[in-house]
Design brief:
160 residues, alpha/beta, five-stranded parallel β-sheet, 5 strands, 41% helix, binds adenosine-5'-diphosphate
C-alpha cells in the first residue's frame, strides 16, 4: 500500500491545505494528514484536537484520508506508521529554502522521501499566519478557509 503523510501545523486549516489534501489523496492509496505539535510548547491559536476536527471536516468524502495528531520526529512517525513519502506544498522561494533542508535531512536519516506539490495559483498567497491576522481583526475569511469551517474559524479568532 502506498501511504503518504502530509504534516503541518494547520493552525488553522486553510483552502491551500485543502487543495493539497485533495490533490494528494488522488495519488496515494492512503493519505495521513498529521497535525504535528510539541506538547512542551503552547498549543497555538487553535487546540490540537480542534485542528484535527477541522481537517476531518474538510476531508469529508475523501475515503482514503485519515487525520491524526503526532509529536516527535517526522522520520520516527513515518517509520512507525509504515509511511514512505512525506508531502509538502511549495508556495515560494522562501518555502523552497526551508523545505529542501528538511527533506535532505529526513532522507539522510532514514531514507524518507519528500514529494512537493506546487501551490495552486488561486491559493498560493494563503497562509495560516495571514488567516489568523485577518480573523483576529474580524476580517472576512471567505475563500481563505474552506466553507465548512469558515464560521468556526472566524468565531475562534474573533474571541481571542
Ligand atoms: P508548517 O508549520 O509545517 O509550515 P503549515 O500548516 O503552515 O505547517 O503548512 C503545512 C504544509 O502545507 C506546508 O508544506 C506548507 O508549505 C503547505 N501549505 C501551506 N499553505 C499552503 C498553500 N496556500 N498552498 C499550498 N501549500 C500550502
Amino acid at each position: 500500500m502506498r501511504k503518504a503523510l502530509y504534516p503541518g501545523s494547520f493552525d488553522p486549516v486553510t483552502s491551500g491545505h485543502r487543495d493539497i489534501i485533495r490533490r494528494t489523496s488522488a495519488l496515494f492509496d492512503q493519505l495521513i494528514v498529521g497535525v504535528l505539535h510539541n506538547p512542551q510548547k503552547p498549543s497555538g491559536a487553535f487546540a490540537v484536537n480542534d485542528r484535527v476536527a477541522m481537517l476531518m471536516e474538510i476531508s469529508h468524502g475523501l475515503d482514503n484520508v485519515r487525520v491524526c495528531a503526532f509529536s516527535g520526529l517526522l522520520v520516527d512517525i513515518a517509520r512507525e506508521n509504515g509511511i514512505q513519502t512525506v508531502i509538502r506544498g511549495l508556495r515560494s522561494g522562501q518555502d523552497f529554502e526551508s523545505e529542501m533542508q528538511m527533506a535532505r535531512l529526513n532522507r539522510q536519516m532514514t531514507g524518507l522521501e519528500t514529494m512537493f506539490l506546487a501551490a495552486s495559483p488561486e491559493y498560493v498567497h494563503i497562509s495560516s499566519n495571514m488567516v489568523r491576522e485577518i480573523g483576529r481583526f474580524g476580517g472576512d475569511l471567505h475563500g481563505l478557509v474552506p466553507g465548512r469551517i469558515l464560521s468556526h474559524v472566524s468565531e475562534v479568532l474573533r474571541a481571542e
